[in-house]
Specification:
heterodimer, A: 250 residues, alpha+beta, two-stranded antiparallel sheet, 11 strands, elongated, B: 312 residues, seven-stranded mixed β-sheet, four-stranded antiparallel β-sheet, 3 helices, 19 strands, flat
Chain lengths: 250, 312
């Protein structure tokens, strides 16, 4: 809920700022007419990742994730690198992203009544989401009309290695079964980037001249991913979430 | 004129340098500034390395080395101090710098001398090294006299001493038992809190046995910079008796603490809770399966960097 509200607020802010920036830029043909070639984009992002583990049918309504971690999401940091392949009406890219998130809580002891009490040991859950994606960014208006908003969509293959821990003994075992593995899935992402160059065009041009960074963006994106071996049994690492970050186009 | 001034400046700077460096006497135990001895060292010897430098001054005496129970080094050994002999000592004339070694006979340390007195004072005690139950600090001291080039070795000759004499401790007194604190039951393990009763305890050894067993076995140890240690490899649901012993810098191990009983318990982490709730995950398809995806990602990265280099 908080993530949705934050997304709405950011969206409204982006719209306001973009209108202002557009007014400043007028009908200029291009933000940076003499810019260096654009070949790639690097994104750094953060998001609240709460895997949909508890929706697994075999759990019959039990909520091991919520009960262990008190329903709190994990803070997921991601790095994405996109290679731009086609630049005509918008930009088509191939991208790869890698992320990491961890969550800790007290392990529990089951008492005589069947209830649980926290123990002195810590239980941990870790994920390392990987994604390979095709990306389309509609940046033509930003490049040619000075409208500093770039909507985009991503679709790709996801693979998420995961592992658990308890105490200081490394990976947790349950009845001899190792608490680690990996899950395949797919991800669809929709988002919008706000071109920060619009706020400081001269600085942006210097950035390109000095470092080869053509454009800098602030962005928000909604991630819809099903990571459960395409509907297979076991841990469901799917999620629906917002991510926010900073992107540099080279 | 200019040559004269340059010569004068060089002469003065040389003299000033000699005065600045000054004489020195450095002592150590092969690079160490302290050494701890126990009853196991009785009958042996400890080697002291010394380096004396007259610093351009005139040496006026032999180099004298001794071991004292005093807290500071005097100019010369006292009556109860033990004077050392060693290679290189005794020569009255020596060049700017000399170095050598001297040997300390552990049985002859001043703490074992017959003029030691007990706490009541006055009572003469003769203590043999092997019978001693002592924890005493000593200093290894040294000195030589020197004079300057103008006055020579007159009565005004001054004494050079080590700026920080090395310390020698004889300690065969075991540390007291540590204070055993809370024992936290863990999964197949016990987290045992214990603290040292004295500051010279550096290690706390944990011992345990199944309640009713005859002998305690080692449960590992931890440094006193930590507050607890963990005994692992235990069986859940079984009561264990736990105690601790301290070890000091000299390696003396003290008596055991009081015994406490605790029982390891099975704890559930996230994966265990998930499985107990009916989760069907079986693990597997582990991180290695993501290799192709990582490979493609790596290729993308390589493409990115190569394209950057071409542009550069």
């Amino acid at each position: 809920m908080m993530a949705k509200s934050a997304g709405l607020v950011l969206g409204a802010w982006l719209a306001l700022v973009s209108a202002e920036a557009h007014a400043q830029l007028g009908t200029r043909a291009s933000l940076t007419p003499s810019e260096s070639p654009r070949t790639a984009e690097v994104e750094l992002k953060l998001g609240a990742y709460k895997p949909l583990i508890d929706r697994e049918a075999a759990l019959n309504g039990a909520k091991p994730y919520d009960e262990t971690f008190h329903g709190a999401p994990m803070l997921l940091g991601e790095l994405e690198i996109d290679r731009e392949l086609w630049q005509r009406i918008g930009t088509l890219s191939a991208g790869f992203s890698i992320g990491y998130a961890e969550k800790y809580a007290a392990a529990v002891v089951v008492d005589e009544t069947g209830g649980t009490v926290p123990s002195a040991e810590r239980a941990g859950f870790f994920v390392l989401p990987l994604r390979l994606m095709a990306i389309y960014r509609f940046d033509w208006p930003a490049q040619h009309l000075g409208i500093p908003l770039v909507p985009y969509a991503k679709l790709g293959l996801a693979y998420t290695p995961w592992w658990t821990s308890k105490g200081s003994t490394g990976v947790e075992y349950s009845n001899g079964q190792r608490g680690a593995g990996g899950k395949w899935g797919w991800a669809g992402i929709a988002g919008v980037q706000f071109l920060l160059d619009a706020l400081e065009p001269r600085l942006a041009k210097d950035f390109d001249t000095d470092f080869g960074i053509n454009h800098t963006y602030l962005f928000a994106e909604y991630v819809y991913e099903d990571v459960n071996n395409f509907g297979g049994k076991g841990l469901d690492l799917s999620s629906r979430r917002w991510s926010f970050g900073l992107a540099f186009e080279f | 004129m200019r040559a004269f001034l340059v010569s004068l400046a060089l002469c003065l700077s040389g003299a000033a340098y000699a005065q600045f460096v000054g004489p020195s006497l450095e002592l150590d135990f092969g690079g160490q500034t302290s050494r701890v001895l126990t009853a196991a060292d009785c009958g042996g010897q400890v080697s002291v390395t010394w380096t004396a430098n007259s610093g351009g001054n005139l040496p006026c005496s032999d180099i004298t080395l001794w071991v004292t129970t005093a807290t500071t080094c005097a100019d010369a050994p006292g009556a109860s101090d033990i004077q050392l002999s060693g290679s290189g000592l005794g020569a009255n004339t020596w060049p700017t710098q000399r170095t050598g070694t001297a040997l300390i006979d552990v049985n002859s340390l001043p703490v074992f001398a017959s003029n030691s007195t007990d706490a009541d004072g006055g009572t003469t005690i003769t203590t043999k090294c092997s019978d001693a139950l002592l924890e005493r600090d000593m200093l290894v001291c040294g000195s030589f006299k020197y004079g300057n080039t103008f006055s020579g070795c007159s009565s005004s000759a001054t004494v050079a001493k080590p700026s920080s004499p090395p310390t020698l401790r004889f300690d065969d007194v075991p540390p007291p038992a540590p204070d055993l604190g809370e024992i936290v039951p863990l999964d197949s393990a016990l987290q045992v809190a214990a603290s040292a009763a004295t500051s010279d305890t550096i290690l706390i050894h944990l011992e345990y046995r199944r309640a009713g067993d005859a002998d305690f076995v080692s449960g590992g140890s931890f440094g006193t910079d930590r507050t607890s240690g963990k005994i692992t490899g235990l069986e859940n649901g079984v009561p264990y008796e736990v105690r601790a012993r301290g070890e000091d810098q000299a390696g003396n191990i003290g008596p055991p603490s009081d015994v406490q009983i605790s029982v390891p318990v099975h704890t559930q982490g996230f994966f265990d809770r998930y499985k107990q709730a009916g989760g069907e995950e079986t693990g597997g398809c582990a991180a290695g399966a993501g290799g192709p995806l990582l490979g493609l990602g790596g290729a993308l990265l390589a493409g990115f960097f190569f394209s950057r280099r071409r542009r550069g």
